[in-house]
Structure formats: structure tokens, C-alpha cells
Amino acid sequence: MRQWKIIAKEAMARASIIGKFLCLLHVTDAYVLSSNHVLGPSMLPTLNITGDVVLVEHLSHRLGKLGSGDLVLVRSPLDPKKTLTKRIVAMEGDKVTFSLDPTRSHSSRSLVVPKGHVWIQGDNLYVSRDSRHFGPLPYGLIEGKVFMRVWPPSSFGLLGE
Amino acid sequence: MGTPSILWSITKKCFTVGVITLTVSDLFASIVPVRGASMSPTFNPKTNSLFDSLSDDRVLVEKLCLRNYKFSHGDVIVFSSPNNHKEKHVKRIVGLPGDWVGTIYDVVHIPEGHCWVEGDNSASSLDSRSFGPVPLGLVKGRVTHVLWPPHRVGTVDRKTSQNRVSSSSSASKF
């Protein structure tokens, strides 16, 4: 009987260490640093079409330290289960001029980014679906700032402009 | 002599408790106070002009719904305001993606990935009638129970208004 008690106690101690580690992992992943696998042609030539692994930091957007030119990971306004990687082109209050289809026409539209929103665009304007299609993005959908690429090893290094 | 190690162990304990609380409140459920009368009489039914924070309703917000973002008409949700990401609002979902919602002036189509929210107290509620459909990515949780004050403890029911919403989704349940 006493043996089971000792075994149960040790099992609880081990489980609590694992539980605490998983909680620490979640907090680091959500509030400090995480990695993300990015696919698709919308950010060429900055990011590859076949997929890169990038590091995302979750501090800047909480501290309000994001600005134009930053690469950000955002939750898609069209599908909350998907995340997109795009570049901030304009912050709230800025005026943004864009043309919906660079191949078709030279006509462009301008608007001012409303309060609490940002304007994001993919670096590859020809295939990217971004704020030019779904409008300004609420700041609350931003999940983090992409600052570094770790895979493929040939393109290891900091990202930014 | 022994004080640095006592301080260190207290710090470690606080850090551990903090990390565990943060994880549970992010992934499972948390308790939040509801300010304002926009969801009266469901929350804060007494319309005092001066709300002291002790008399605000406290509700249980579950986060498991954020795994697959499947909501139903009439769910009460907590979401970050589209105009100010630091503010959070509590409102009821009136329209889901694909629905047509009737407001006073026109009929609005809810785009993919968005929802239409309104407060139960239409007279004093800042909701989708002012800032439009809300992207589902801004939703932070679903309110399931009222936990304070004690005489109103209970589940928060779904309430739908069939006469204003034309739903295209066959998966809506209530």
C-alpha cells in the first residue's frame, strides 16, 4: 500500500514539472518568441515561395513599437484560422496610395488609414491578397513581428527594411 | 545570509504561479468584469450612472471556442475593439459570415471571417451598428456564466432575433 503512495507521489511530482514546463512554453510562444513556417509567393523576393521558417517576436506589437516597413504576422480577416505574413506599409493616420492591379491599369486610389488600423501589403504586389483587397487591418489582428529567418540555412539572417 | 535564497524561492514561486495562471486564462477560461450597461439586462441590469467596480458583473469567459472559431447566433463574446485594440467589448453575436443583417437604414451582408455583434440594450450600445462587422480574429472568448453578483449566478443563454437576420448557413444552431 505504501509503495503505491510513493509511486503516486512521484508521478504527481513529475507531472507537475511537465505541466509547469508546458505552461512556460505557451507563455514564451505567445508573449516572447515563436517560429512560423511561411509559404507562398506573396512576399517574393523577401521570402521564398517554397517555404521559410522565420522567428516572430511578440513584444513590439504589445508595446506599440511597430512602424511602416515592418514584416508582421497577422491573423487573416477573411479566415480567423489562418495567419498571413505581410509588410506594414502605413500606420493609422497615414495616407496610402495604391493601385489594385499593377498589370492592368495605372489608375490608383488613396485613402487615410483609420484609427486603430494598419495597411499591409505583400512585397509581391502582383499575387498578394492584402489590404488592397480586404481594407485596412485592425491592429488587434497583429500577432507579432517577423525579424529573422532561420531556414533555409543559406538565407539565415535578420529580415527587415 | 538566508534572505537571498528566501527571496529567490519566493520569486520563483510567484513566477511559476504567474505563468500557470496566464496559460490557464489564455487557453481555458478567465473571469472578467463587465463595465457599462450595453448588455443590460443580461449583465449590469441596474442602470446607475455611477458604477463602482465592486458592483459590476463578473462573468466566466471560455477560450476553448478559439480552437476552431465556431460560433452560433446568440453567443455572447468578448472581442478587442476594431478601433482600439487595447479595449475589449462584450456583445452578442447577431450575424455570422454569409448572413444578411437588417439595420434601420439598410441590409448588411456579413463578409467571410466576420461577425455582426450588438448589445442587448440597443439604446446605449456601441456595436456593429457603429463600427461594422467585426473580424472573428479579434474574438477573445465566449461568455458562458455569470459569477457575480451571487443572486444572478447562472448560465448565459443564447438569444436570437429571427426577424432581423437572414441566415444562409445551415449549421447555425440554437
Short description:
Chain A is α+β, with helices and mostly antiparallel strands.
Task: Furnish the topology, listing elements before pairings.
The complex is a heterodimer of chains A (161) and B (174).
Chain A: H1 2-31, E1 33-38, E2 52-57, H2 60-63, E3 71-75, E4 83-90, E5 95-98, E6 109-112, E7 117-121, H3 131-134, E8 137-138, E9 142-151, E10 157-158
Antiparallel strand pairs in A: 1-2, 2-9, 3-4, 3-9, 4-7, 5-6, 7-8, 9-10
Chain B: H1 3-27, E1 29-34, E2 57-62, E3 76-81, E4 84-95, E5 100-102, E6 107-109, E7 114-118, H2 128-131, E8 134-135, E9 139-148, E10 154-155, E11 165-166
Antiparallel strand pairs in B: 1-2, 2-9, 3-4, 3-9, 4-7, 5-6, 5-11, 7-8, 9-10
Keywords:
heterodimer, A: 161 residues, alpha+beta, 8-stranded antiparallel beta sheet, two-stranded antiparallel ribbon, 3 helices, elongated, B: 174 residues, 3-stranded antiparallel beta sheet, 2 helices, 11 strands, 33% strand, disordered C terminus
Number of helices of chain A: 3
* Shape, principal axes of CA atoms of chain B: elongated
Q: Radius of gyration of chain A over alpha carbons?
A: 21 Å
Measured distance between first and last alpha carbons of chain B = 64 Å
Rounded average pLDDT of chain B: 87
According to DSSP, the number of beta strands of chain B is: 11
Walkthrough of the structure:
The complex is a heterodimer of chains A (161) and B (174). By secondary structure, chain A is α+β, with helices and mostly antiparallel strands. Chain A has helices at 2-31, 60-63, 131-134, and strands spanning 33-38, 52-57, 71-75, 83-90, 95-98, 109-112, 117-121, 137-138, 142-151, 157-158. In chain A, strands 1, 2, 3, 4, 7, 8, 9 and 10 form an eight-stranded antiparallel β-sheet that branches. A two-stranded antiparallel ribbon of chain A has the order 5-6. In chain A, β3 (71-75) and β4 form a beta hairpin. The longest helix of chain A is centred in the N-terminal third of the chain and has 30 residues, at 2-31. Chain A is elongated and about 85 Å long. The relative contact order of chain A is 0.19. Chain B is α+β, with helices and mostly antiparallel strands. Helix content of chain B is 17%, strand content 33%. In chain B, the strands form two sheets. In chain B, strands 1, 2, 3, 4, 7, 8, 9 and 10 form an eight-stranded antiparallel β-sheet that branches. A three-stranded antiparallel β-sheet of chain B has the order 6-5-11, with no helix packed on it. In chain B, β3 (76-81) and β4 (84-95) form a beta hairpin.
